[in-house]
Design goal:
The chain has a seven-stranded mixed sheet, with helices on both faces. A five-stranded parallel sheet has the order 2-1-3-4-5, with helices on both faces. The chain has a two-stranded antiparallel sheet with strand order 11-12. The chain is built from eleven helices and 14 strands. By secondary structure, the protein is of the alpha/beta class.
Length: 338
């Protein structure tokens, strides 16, 4: 994989990232690369070096330590599964890893002092839809850890709000006797299949929300996505006014010109993470883990991605909230949270 670097950074810093440019996570890793390329084109804070982890844990295990040795600042990979391994490697090397791709609660709190997470944790992912529904809530979780953690958080909040909830696996019978709503929390492919099955039922759900509906590919994966709710780390119009980096409007224009399509949240969260990481390095005057950590732990700011604030003891993201959207004819439209 060639290095993606441009003109020399003013301070000599190199920012490295392992991204899934091939394999099952390629649609997300490629967007993250586009986002980082735009970030690099608008800053002289650091050079950019990217390696393809091929969506494969073994490839990540091979590429990530070498990337960490060659770069001053290191962004983790996309997906909770791969980020879990990257966090272990970073802790072993005593490096600070900037997590833009793994929302799993266990990943975010696994290595205090070695991992800074920008994403809303998985357990809070579905909060806006759980607050929204009035009928019985059926949660279909995927087979992996991410889906389990999203479902755990949704069940906990539903119980706190006094709402009736049923929890199922991706292959369980979906048929319900009365009014019900559906929340899908799995891989993109699992969510799409669940939505299709639910729609074919004699008594389909009154409202449907899917993690998969947080990306534009959902619109071509299911027939007539209109009316479907999506939860995601970001939707256009959900980020607010940024204190760091570029505005959402400028980013959307640059991304469309560069990639030929609108961005999804993987692109925005990667660019925002790079901006936060280089800002902290400039404030710290160092890229050593022990110098970066207290600066990141004390930082409270906003980017086009939304709010940033971590728990200073764990590194878990506490400031950012997931965005809530409903699909219209031309894609997802951000909704105001309760």
């Amino acid at each position: 994989m060639p290095e993606f670097s441009s003109c020399r950074a003013r301070n000599g810093l190199r920012l490295g990232a392992c991204l899934s440019l091939t394999g099952r996570f390629a649609r997300f890793g490629t967007q993250a690369l586009h986002g980082l390329t735009i970030w690099r084109s608008r800053t002289e804070a650091a050079e950019l070096v990217v390696e393809d982890d091929r969506s494969d844990p073994k490839s990540l295990d091979s590429a990530f330590p070498d990337l960490a040795r060659r770069c001053d600042l290191i962004l983790g990979p996309y997906s909770t599964h791969l980020m879990r391994r990257a966090g272990n490697i970073g802790a072993h090397l005593d490096r600070l890893i900037w997590n833009h791709g793994g929302s799993g609660d266990d990943v975010q709190r696994a290595h205090p002092g070695h991992l800074v997470s920008v994403l809303t944790p998985a357990s809070r992912y579905a909060d806006p839809f759980v607050q929204h529904v009035a009928s019985e809530l059926v949660i279909v979780q995927g087979k992996g850890g991410f889906g389990r953690q999203v479902a755990d958080g949704a069940v906990t909040l539903a119980h706190e709000l006094g709402k009736e909830v049923v929890r199922l696996g991706p292959d369980d019978d979906l048929q319900r006797p009365g009014p019900w709503s559906l929340l899908c929390a799995g891989t993109f492919e699992e969510d799409v299949q669940t939505v299709r099955r639910a729609r074919a039922l004699p008594n389909p759900p009154r409202s449907t929300c899917a993690v998969a509906a947080g990306v534009r590919a959902f619109g071509s994966a299911v027939e007539d996505a209109q009316g479907t709710y999506g939860v995601g780390q970001w939707f256009p119009g959900a980020g607010g006014a940024p204190e760091l980096f570029m505005t959402e409007s400028d980013f959307l224009t640059a991304y469309q010109k560069h990639a030929g399509a609108p961005p999804d949240y993987p692109a925005v969260q990667a660019a925002a993470t790079a901006a936060i990481a280089t800002y902290c390095a400039e404030r710290a005057g160092s890229t050593a883990r022990e110098a970066l950590w207290p600066v990141a732990a004390a930082l409270e700011t906003t980017t086009l991605f939304g709010a940033f604030k971590i728990d200073p003891h764990t590194g878990v993201q506490v400031g950012h909230q997931t965005a809530f959207a409903r699909w219209a004819a031309d894609g997802p439209v951000a909704l105001r949270r309760l």
